[in-house]
Design a protein that fits this description.
The chain starts with 8 loop residues before the first helix and ends with a helix. The protein is built from 10 helices and 22 strands. It has helices spanning 9-12, 22-36, 107-114, 186-212, 222-226, 228-249, 266-286, 307-315, 527-531, 574-577; strands spanning 58-70, 72-74, 81-83, 126-144, 149-168, 177-179, 259-261, 329-334, 338-347, 364-373, 396-406, 411-422, 425-430, 445-451, 455-464, 470-481, 485-487, 489-493, 499-503, 513-525, 539-552, 558-569. α3 (107-114) packs across α6 (228-249) and α4 (186-212) runs antiparallel to α6 (228-249). It folds into 2 domains: 9-89 and 133-165 and 333-577, Porin, CATH 2.40.160.40; 93-125 and 183-299, no CATH class. The protein is of the alpha+beta class and 579 residues long.
């Protein structure tokens, strides 16, 4: 059994549906029982690893489909259970904690427009639900060179499907910004022109009156001369507001910002109040205008960000993110292939390939194996924020130690220790400032040096074999992966021109993992029946289930699977000799 890989979405986020379908268990048990009625069958060892190898000259071919799904994970911080979509669920999409280009840069102009010292900047809230289903089909090939040495190969084929439900601004609460309509609609720019032009005309008129009224007592100058400082301040304020209005909302001459205040939101309401107050001040100094008001109309506000706007935010180039839209995604690819060899150091079981029961209580078997894992898997894509890869696509060197102990001729226990030394490599990642930052922009995508944390695990698998046909087995495994390390520093400019200093070491924060897993299996075998010429094919069939019990930084995963192993003699037929 290979050390499990948790990558991409699994690494930064991931969780699994618990529980097992009683119906599946019932069907599996019935099928196994039905097959048993026709066979005289074998001593079945089950699908979990043990210290045995394929018998000498026998090719053992396994096909093991596994079906898993998850929508929860154990937190990377405190091991608490949390939804898989936690990193993509935000009370506020703004400059922090989810940095979005162009948002923070609006603060100075909006302060001028609204009079608010710290204008609230948010594209609204985001609620995200994620669910991952995964089908892994392990194809295993084992060959016994002799009674002590066997060769092994594992080819995993992985099909992942990520279900994404990202809902922005449900309940219409908290959003202050949306995509600026003046960038798409000429009518909006024309309306904004009217506001800016009337504001400019009023400012020009008051400036002229300040000059004309200097030192004269004309009744039309009474209000101005009574508060020349206030009138002068109004000219300055109106000039600044006019410029800020064009900068944020846009006019025919100026494109305006990517985002603008949302209609009915706190910012646009404050802008309206500010323009109303400025208009009242102009009326105080200049009296009523010939027609209308000194400040006519209001700038065109943005609409609340909807699902299509959210896709535009994540997928569009204008936002600087250029990521894949948050939508369902499916892909299939080969995982990380393993090649290895196992050597039996001590064996008092006395049976080739464990086709016979232990001869006596206290029989032991000790073996060691070396595995080289190829980087053949498909990485999660850096621009797809919910992608789940099919492997780490990086080489591992792994050593394994096996110990089997017979407590009786029908009950024995296997213990396994594994240690994987993960090899450094280079890859392209989007460098975030903190773990869980959801939508890093395109300029953060850089080639970095990576060294995944080494992995060790311990496994215990007790087996009860009441007869030649069936076995019942359980599995407990503890796994720990060390902290990943990333290297590389980069100086880049954000899409809005903000200077960014990127340090790839932040990618390693929160990457330490632990998990405990429990499983069980029911196995039917015809190997012993084949050895006695009572069966046509030497095969093993197993149903198995595993469940993550606890962990840190890993999915809360439930898996159901089937395992089929076919024994194929290549030279001689030691299976027939094992009677």
């Amino acid at each position: 059994m290979p050390l499990p890989k948790y990558n991409g979405l699994l690494t930064h986020t991931a969780r699994v549906r618990g529980g097992i379908s009683r119906r599946v268990l019932k069907i599996a048990t019935v099928l196994l029982a039905a097959v048993a009625t026709d066979a005289t069958a074998q001593r079945a060892t089950g699908p979990w690893e043990d210290g045995s190898i394929a018998p000498r000259g026998v090719l053992r071919i396994g096909i093991n489909p596994r079906f898993a799904n998850w929508n929860e994970r154990y937190s990377r911080d405190n091991s608490a259970r949390e939804p898989l979509g936690t990193d993509f669920t935000r009370d506020s999409l703004g400059p922090a904690p989810a940095f979005l280009p162009y948002v923070a840069g609006l603060a100075p102009a909006l302060t001028t427009l609204t009079g608010l010292a710290s204008p609230p900047l948010s594209l609204g809230m985001l609620q995200t639900r994620l669910n991952v289903t995964e089908v892994q089909t392990h194809i295993t090939i084992d060959y016994g060179l002799n009674s002590r040495l066997g060769l092994q190969a594992l080819v995993p084929y992985v099909k992942n499907r990520v279900y994404v439900s990202a809902i922005p601004n449900q309940g219409d609460v908290g959003a202050t910004l949306g995509f600026n309509p003046s960038r798409s609609f000429p009518g909006a720019r024309q309306q904004n022109d009217l506001v800016v032009s009337t504001l400019g005309a009023a400012t020009s008129t008051l400036s002229s009156e300040l000059v004309r009224c200097q030192g004269i007592s004309d009744p039309s100058c009474t209000a101005i001369n009574a508060d020349r400082a206030g009138a002068t301040a109004l000219v300055q304020q109106a000039t600044q507001v006019s410029g800020a209005l064009a900068t944020v909302y846009g006019t025919s001459a100026l494109a305006g910002a990517l985002y603008a205040p949302v209609a009915g939101g706190a910012l646009h309401t404050a802008v309206d109040a500010r323009l109303t107050a400025i208009n009242a001040q102009f009326r105080n100094f200049l009296g009523a205008p010939p027609s209308g008001e000194w400040v006519n109309g209001r700038p065109v506000a943005a609409s609340l960000m909807a699902a299509s706007d959210f896709d535009r935010l994540i997928n569009g180039e204008e936002s600087g993110i250029s990521g894949r839209a948050m939508a369902d995604y499916e892909h299939s690819h080969v995982g990380d292939i393993e090649l290895g060899a196992k050597f039996i150091l001590l064996d008092t079981f006395g049976s080739p390939g464990a086709t016979l029961p232990p001869p006596h209580t206290g029989a032991i078997r000790v073996a060691a194996a070396g595995i080289y894992r190829l980087g053949t898997g498909q990485l999660d894509l850096p621009h797809d924020f919910t992608d789940v890869g099919t492997g780490d696509r990086q080489a591992d060197i792994e050593v394994r130690g096996f110990g089997d102990l017979a407590l009786s001729t029908k009950f024995w226990v296997s213990a396994i220790a594994r240690f994987a030394l993960q090899q450094p490599d280079q890859l392209v990642r989007r460098i975030t400032d903190q773990p869980g930052d959801p939508f890093p922009e395109l300029v953060r995508e850089q080639e970095v040096d990576r060294d995944l944390g080494d992995v060790y695990e311990f496994e215990v698998a007790p087996r009860f074999v009441p007869n030649d046909e069936f076995s019942l087995s359980a599995l407990y495994r503890y796994r720990h992966k060390g902290v990943d390390t990333y290297d590389g520093t980069f100086l880049v400019n954000s899409a809005d021109g903000t200077a960014l200093s990127l340090d790839a070491s932040t990618l390693g924060l929160g990457t330490e993992q632990t998990d405990q897993m429990f499983g069980f299996a029911i196995t039917f075998s015809t190997v012993r029946a084949y050895a006695r010429n009572a069966g046509r094919w030497p095969i093993e069939v197993s149903f198995m289930h595993t469940q993550t019990l606890s962990g840190k930084g890993v999915p809360r995963q439930s898996m159901n699977g089937f395992a089929l192993r076919l024994y194929r003699p290549i030279r001689g037929n030691v299976l027939k000799a094992a009677k």
